[in-house]
Design brief:
Elements (H helix, E strand, L loop, with lengths): L15 H7 L9 H30 L8 H22 L3 H22 L17 H11 L2 H23 L3 H79 L3 H19 L16 H13 L6 E5 L8 H22 L5 E7 L2 E8 L17 H10 L3 E7 L2 E9 L3
Parallel strand pairs: 1-2
Antiparallel strand pairs: 2-3, 3-5, 4-5
Helix pairs in contact: 2-3, 2-5, 2-7, 3-4, 4-5, 4-6, 5-6, 5-7, 6-7, 7-8, 8-11, 9-10, 10-11
């Protein structure tokens, strides 16, 4: 009905239980493959880090390469964050945070190794227990950081290990050569890990983008097909029902023929009003005027709205034909749906009055209004579901719109 704008009144509250009950099939679809690739990568990294961490822990328990004071500190700094990261990756809870903590903690362990081994002569042929954690630190960085920081970690950790190893075993051609080989080997493995992670993530992003584009194309095609089907149906209806009613009215010469033409016109208008939904005319059994209020309240509840309705129903008002009640409720429902869709439900209110043989319903919102001339000719929201529906039951409908909002007036008066 109107476009949503900022207003003093807040948008009408929509019952959140409606969304929870129905759900949203589109939620998470844009990251369907990415989320699964990340989950698989988390499990693989957890398994690899668990194996390497176990090897390192076994060697660390009996290690004599660091001083007694530093030994427990380094073990706690290395294995507690590592265990936390493995548990987080397996469960999928706080995995990024745990990976960041582990990556930083392992970098600190490598940086502190020269201090922990100061004054101790090590066997250059026996690698320290931190050697097993070289690629664990890189894997943690892959799970924790973006690509630039992953590259920094892939270079930083091997360099820190190389410096620590030189301080530990001393300087010599053979020793420097062995240490350099370890550093280069660690960098190559780190590059492989980073490349695999990057390739898998970008492949997942590409698949999700292709799926999103395919779904969008299918939705556009389905919408175009639905619009064409609706156009054909309305054209057939206009040809078969409306033109037949007009011909019958033009040829009517007796009261019986005129009554038949009126009935045909009513049926044609009802079918036109119901072109967008399967709602028949139904029984004409008289109903109390309060049924209009109850019907609109029920329609608002089905739309997930808490409507501010004011009703003035005279107890002396005679019963209203059932088709009139249904027309008023269905036309009001369409007006409410338009207000929610195009005005966000801002300032939405309903006033119902039944007295002296007249039933009037007013639906108002505080949106930005719309240009009636800009409404496409094949749109039936106002022309069919509101105006034609009220005309089919002998009533009338008026739509007033401006920048201050839109008001739909529905009125039916008992024939004298």
């Amino acid at each position: 009905m109107t476009a949503p704008v900022a207003a003093d009144r807040p948008p009408l509250a929509v019952d959140p239980t409606i969304r929870r009950r129905l759900g949203d099939i589109s939620v998470g679809a844009e990251r369907f493959t990415q989320s699964r690739v990340e989950r698989i990568a988390s499990l693989v990294v957890a398994l690899g880090c668990g194996v390497l961490g176990t090897q390192s822990l076994i060697n660390a328990l009996g290690s004599t390469q660091e001083t007694t004071a530093w030994h427990p500190i380094l073990m706690i700094a290395a294995f507690v964050p590592l265990a936390f990261m493995i548990a987080a990756l397996v469960t999928g809870i706080l995995s990024r945070t745990a990976s960041r903590v582990c990556a930083v903690a392992l970098a600190a362990v490598f940086a502190g190794w020269p201090l922990a081994t100061a004054g101790i002569i090590a066997d250059p042929l026996t690698p320290p227990w931190i050697w097993y954690l070289l690629n664990v630190a890189t894997a943690a960085a892959v799970m924790a950081f973006r690509l630039p920081l992953q590259i920094v970690w892939a270079v930083l950790i091997p360099v820190l290990y190389g410096v620590a190893r030189v301080f530990h075993v001393g300087v010599g051609p053979a020793r420097i050569s062995n240490t350099a080989l370890d550093v280069v080997f660690a960098m190559i493995l780190a590059a492989v890990i980073i490349t695999l992670g990057w390739m898998l993530r970008w492949s997942a992003i590409g698949i999700d983008r292709a799926r999103r584009d395919a779904v969008a194309s299918y939705a556009a095609a389905a919408a175009a097909d639905a619009a064409e089907t609706e156009r054909v149906a309305v054209a057939a209806l206009m040809h078969d029902s409306v033109l037949a009613a007009l011909i019958a009215a033009e040829r009517a010469t007796t009261p019986r023929e005129e009554a038949l033409a009126v009935a045909m016109a009513r049926e044609a208008l009802t079918r036109l009003a119901n072109a967008e939904q399967d709602a028949g005319e139904g029984s004409d059994e008289p109903m109390p005027a309060a049924a209009v209020v109850a019907g609109i309240e029920r329609a608002g509840s089905e739309l997930g709205l808490t409507l501010p309705i004011t009703a003035e129903v005279d107890a002396a008002v005679d019963a209203i034909p059932g088709r009139v009640v249904r027309s008023l409720v269905l036309a009001a429902t369409q007006a409410l749906a338009n207000a929610v869709q195009h005005a966000g439900g801002v300032g939405l209110s309903v006033h119902i009055k039944a007295a002296d043989g007249v039933v009037a319903v007013r639906i108002s919102d505080a949106g930005a209004g719309f240009d009636p001339d800009a409404v496409a000719a094949d749109r039936l929201g106002i022309r069919g579901s509101i105006v034609a529906r009220m005309a089919a039951s002998g009533g009338r409908a008026r739509v007033q719109t401006s920048h201050a909002g839109t008001t739909v007036h529905l009125e039916w008066e008992r024939p004298r």
